[in-house]
């Protein structure tokens, strides 16, 4: 009988807010992420509303996705928004040079994107083209999206069926500008970033005065958060350059977020399989994902130097497991399956984000549908929800909840020469006053006995759901969609102490009633 793991939660204490934007998502015009995955067109036999597939929209609504980043990614820096507005039969047909040279018919453009975010109840995070575009092109796009219908740009939008200005809550100024976004030196990027931050204006007057975490009252204030390109490795060149510039910003421009990208792949190019793998590959990816902690610490330390009050959030707007493409899938489509391993990795990352809630206030998992660590896989009319989808749904109560102080002995999970923490736990109080605990047992083989002391309240019952599977590589398929789905679980509660057994390779989310 293994010794039980002691967890102590200070339920009557307070802590930072877990910004709901850390549960954001990324949807790029890449492979079947948009075409087939989200967009099927109005004439499709697949049930849809204005071309957007109903099954996918319904599933995503349940996740309360706070924001969707679009159109890229690398694609953003070769995207010309004019190709994707107006009557569809007249739109430009182009080639997606970033991703498999696929034909880009531009059926899914700006108006379709906003219809999508509105249908799922989310907010828009637009990445403008800084690589092959210009400040004017980006400013014109913002005008198309946000200007009053009395202006020429707004009138064009109204002619295309959308009189009211759209709400652009987040603006990405470039993407990976140190690589696919133009391979810019950091100093060059910063000079360009200032021009975009100054001139790419959100003209939606209704949006003026909305929350702006970094916004001084006058200095560069903007109704949207402008997010600058930051690091994609432990190197701090971009972080230093952008944050130094931010510290010196004047009334004419500012930024309200620094992007960071960090994938779990062990080594580049990604070679780990998404199906049919064993415990060695399971443990290797768990170990690799923990590098996220180092990345956050390294870049937060630089940010703290220039911004000790933590006004500028670290926006991890690309993260997730990047594996070898599924055999038979097209090159450049980044199509992979999604197993219980991915769900566990998602829980480890989300837990890290909550522990850095004062600096990490927004993220976007890559990507939403059919690409990399997806929530949903589709094939024609078929759709399946992945383990990562279920994990995100289980974590919905943590959106905007107050993180609570917690201590626990993580222990160690060993597999061959790999050692990683065995247990991970977070606790939070949601806005309605309920207490929530998420517990992850990384161990592929051994259950974990948990003995939790909940200080400050008299816990009476604890119940929730557990996500687990028989094997580390278990996936949901179109034929067997329910291999990894949340099942009910109840903890024993005696005299305010909660005890339960976590199955091997599992994530459990409990709500505690007092
Ligand atoms: O998510 C896939 C790609 O990964 C993105 O387009 C790019 O920004 C990153 O390198």
Automatic annotation (TrEMBL):
The protein's Enzyme Commission number: 3.2.1.55
Cross-referenced InterPro entries: Alpha-L-AF_C (IPR010720), ASD1_cat (IPR055235), GH (IPR017853), Glyco_hydro_b (IPR013780)
One annotated GO molecular function: alpha-L-arabinofuranosidase activity
Enzyme class of the recorded protein, top EC level: hydrolase
Keyword Ribonucleoprotein among record annotations: no
Domain Alpha-L-arabinofuranosidase C-terminal span(s) in chain numbering: 317-506
Classification via Gene3D superfamilies: Glycosidases (3.20.20.80), Golgi alpha-mannosidase II (2.60.40.1180)
SUPFAM superfamilies from the UniProt entry: (Trans)glycosidases, Glycosyl hydrolase domain
Top-level lineage group: Bacteria
UniProt keyword list: Carbohydrate metabolism, Glycosidase, Hydrolase, Signal
GO biological process, one term: L-arabinose metabolic process
Reaction catalysis annotation: Hydrolysis of terminal non-reducing alpha-L-arabinofuranoside residues in alpha-L-arabinosides
Similarity comment text for this entry: Belongs to the glycosyl hydrolase 51 family.
Stated name of the protein: non-reducing end alpha-L-arabinofuranosidase
Gene source species: Sphingomonas aerophila
């Amino acid at each position: 009988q293994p010794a039980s793991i002691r967890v102590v939660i200070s339920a009557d204490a307070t802590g930072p807010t877990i910004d709901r934007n850390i549960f954001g998502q990324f949807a790029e015009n890449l492979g079947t992420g948009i075409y087939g995955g989200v967009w099927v067109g109005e004439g499709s036999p697949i049930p849809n509303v204005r071309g957007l597939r109903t099954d996918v929209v319904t599933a995503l609504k349940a996740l309360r996705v706070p924001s969707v980043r679009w159109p890229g990614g690398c694609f953003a820096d070769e995207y010309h928004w004019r190709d994707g507005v107006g009557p569809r039969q007249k739109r430009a047909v182009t080639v997606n040079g970033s991703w498999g040279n696929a034909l880009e018919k531009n059926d899914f453009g700006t108006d379709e994107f906003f219809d999508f975010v509105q249908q799922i109840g989310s907010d828009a995070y637009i990445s403008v083209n800084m690589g092959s575009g210009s400040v004017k092109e980006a400013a014109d796009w913002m005008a198309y999206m946000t200007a009053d219908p009395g202006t020429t740009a707004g009138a064009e939008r109204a002619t295309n069926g959308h009189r009211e200005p759209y709400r652009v809550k987040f603006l990405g100024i470039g993407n990976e500008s140190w690589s696919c976004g133009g391979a810019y030196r950091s100093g060059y990027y910063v000079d360009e970033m200032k021009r975009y931050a100054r001139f790419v204006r959100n003209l939606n007057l209704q949006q003026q005065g909305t929350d702006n975490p970094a916004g001084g009252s006058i200095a560069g204030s903007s109704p949207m958060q402008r997010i600058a390109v930051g690091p994609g490795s432990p190197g701090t060149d971009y972080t230093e350059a952008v944050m130094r510039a931010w510290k010196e910003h004047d009334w004419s421009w500012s930024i309200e977020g620094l992007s960071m990208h960090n994938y779990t792949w062990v080594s580049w190019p990604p070679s780990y399989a998404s199906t049919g793998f064993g415990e060695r590959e399971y443990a290797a990816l768990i170990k690799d994902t923990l590098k996220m902690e180092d990345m956050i610490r390294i870049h937060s330390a630089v940010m703290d130097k220039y911004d000790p009050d933590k006004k500028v959030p670290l926006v991890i707007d690309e993260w997730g497991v990047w594996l070898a493409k599924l055999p038979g899938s097209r090159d450049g489509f980044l199509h992979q399956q999604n197993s219980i391993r991915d769900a566990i990795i998602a829980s480890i990352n989300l837990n890290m984000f909550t522990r850095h809630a004062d600096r990490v206030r927004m993220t976007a998992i890559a990507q939403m549908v059919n690409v990399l660590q997806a929530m949903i896989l589709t094939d024609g009319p078929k759709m399946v929800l992945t383990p990562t989808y279920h994990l995100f749904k289980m974590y919905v109560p943590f959106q905007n909840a107050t993180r609570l102080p917690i201590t626990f002995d993580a222990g160690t999970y060993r597999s061959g020469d790999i050692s990683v923490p065995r247990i991970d736990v977070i606790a939070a109080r949601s806005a309605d006053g309920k207490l929530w605990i998420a517990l992850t047992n990384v161990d592929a083989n051994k259950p974990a006995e948990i003995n939790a002391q909940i200080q400050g309240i008299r816990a009476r019952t604890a119940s929730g759901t557990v996500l687990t599977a028989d094997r580390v590589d278990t996936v949901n398929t179109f034929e067997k969609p329910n291999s990894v789905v949340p099942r009910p679980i109840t903890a024993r509660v005696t005299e305010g102490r909660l005890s339960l057994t976590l199955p091997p390779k599992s994530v459990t989310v409990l709500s505690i009633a007092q």
